Request: fold
Amino acid sequence: MNNILIKINNLKEKLKQWEYEYYVLDNPSVSDYEFDITLRELIELENKYPEFITSDSPSQRVGGQVSEKFKKEKHIFPMLSLSNSFNKNDLLKFDQDIEKIVLSSNNEYFVEPKIDGLSISLIYKDGVLIKGITRGDGVTGEDVTVNVKTIKTIPLIIDYKKDLEVRGEIFLDKESFSKMNNESDKKFANARNAAAGTLRNLDSKVVAKRNLKAIIYNIPNPLEHNLQSQNQVINFLKKHKFKTSNESKLCSNINEVFEKIEWFNKNRELIPYDIDGIVIKYDNILKYEEIGYTSKFPKWATAYKFPAEVVESKLLSIDVTVGRTGRINYIANIEPVNLNNTMVSKATLHNYDYIKEKDIMINDYVSLFKAGEIIPKIIGVNHKKRDNNVIKFNEPSNCPMCNYTLVKNKDEVDLYCVNEECKGRIIEGVVHFVSRQAMNIDGLSEGIIRKFFDEKIINSIWDIYEIKNKKELIFSKNVYKKDIEQGIKKQKNFKDKSFDNLVESIEKSKKNSLERLIFALGIKHVGEVASKSLSKKYKSLDNLRKASLDDLMSLNDLGEKMAMSIFKFFNDEKSYLIFENIKKYGINTNYIQSNDYSDIHIKEKYKNKTFLVTGSFSTYSRNQIKDILLELYNSKCVGTITKNVDYVIAGKNATQHKIDKAIQMNIPIIEEEFWKKENQG
Reply:
């Protein structure tokens, strides 16, 4: 047995050295093939002799442990944020403020790239990594040790026996991010979100596959380790085989700092990972207490932020539209321009007050950037390019669809069309009614609906159920002409087949379960989740109509505002006509529980929790997953990320801003494969 142990230890030492050379020094001494063969040999021996497996073995980086949820962990030393600097004047003031305190004009600064990743604290005891904690709110983070151990640039054991905490940044380099996005159905907006989502994945095997990296740059209590400058800290970290930034530099004065920033500006694209700024630290740690802190930041360090990418384009026009609730919306049409690798031709304008405040005119050249890298936003006007062709955009006084006088509610900036007969509002109501989440009627796109309204084929939601009797009228109006000309459907008798399919889909919608009808009715504040809960609770539309306000307000899933809205809707005199039409056209008003989930293995940890489900799924539909959570786990599904959400289940094409917010709020993200595995055993 001693020979086996010696062999295992020799293999471990070889692999550790090769990992260090490959991942930290970027200078491998053996081929990938030789490394893989050696690792496989070690794993086979450890599987045969599990008593010899140690926590620092390279085999432990492959992952395999599954976390139910990451535990909160308080930091020994708070993880402070840094103040931001945006220009040379900010940095000069930073230097001058320090100069006044230390009474010296020869101030050395240590300059480091500000990696666009997520902060991590690593704790070693007797030279062994025992804990990895996310930054969290700076006081309390989450214990992600299992996942941190899969990151090959983080040593599992170091040649330093004193208790040690080091801090750094976990990230995905550009190559790994590109590869991951190309190979995965789930696309991330940027490498930072991908890294954050990966580190907080409940399945460490997934983490191990995604090639996260870490660069370490800080020790929160350096003087206890006899380290008196940031330069010494970096050299100490290198000595103990932590990966540090190759681009860091000790600068002898603030002018050298400016030169280094200029270097970063010119070479930013050549750096293998994303950076969003530069960190400048006063090098002499002995002076830190003297220089001091604000309530939020240390005064001896600052982060110089790169400016956001801003592009300029010509504003061609502003569209005014009306939504289902009557709210007036403004959309800027601009000359197409490339912004963050995306061609942009439209930007959202918040309201007329925003247009007025920014002095935005049609034919102006406007500056745009992507807010949160998702929605293009106009942030200003280039007045130097303004000429006599500009046209002032006046606040609308009448609805663009029905010409009804617009109103502004007290304490609100938005204008509303309050005409319930407004064609625009009705059209948006029909679009909502037939949508996939509501009655799910195929063949009634927004374009077709607008054509039907223009040709007076339909005038309301309920006219949809008369379409089967209007075949000749529809064909005489050439509603499908454009589709035929564009060759969307080339088969013979396209019109007949399209019409027959549409009628079939309309008739099928009458058999939907109650929750679809409730959601389709467009009751204010009532979304998919509330519709499902109401349907399950009351079983029929008649029962729901009879519910008292007290009864509605007693439901856990409904807030006071939603309960009031539901009660008002069902007790309004105008709702009588709605119920008459529902009855007239034979639309089902009962809750139907038709799904068989007998193959689901219940996991106690998901019971009575709050979930957000986003994206599309291959095993079950998104609605089926919500059914499973509601029916089997008695869990709640919501549509918005808040602090009350326990888990996010993410499928293909998950809504990116929801994923981003979940990452920011440290909410575990469960991907489809893991969710499927969890419910199958």
The longest strand covers residues 311-322.
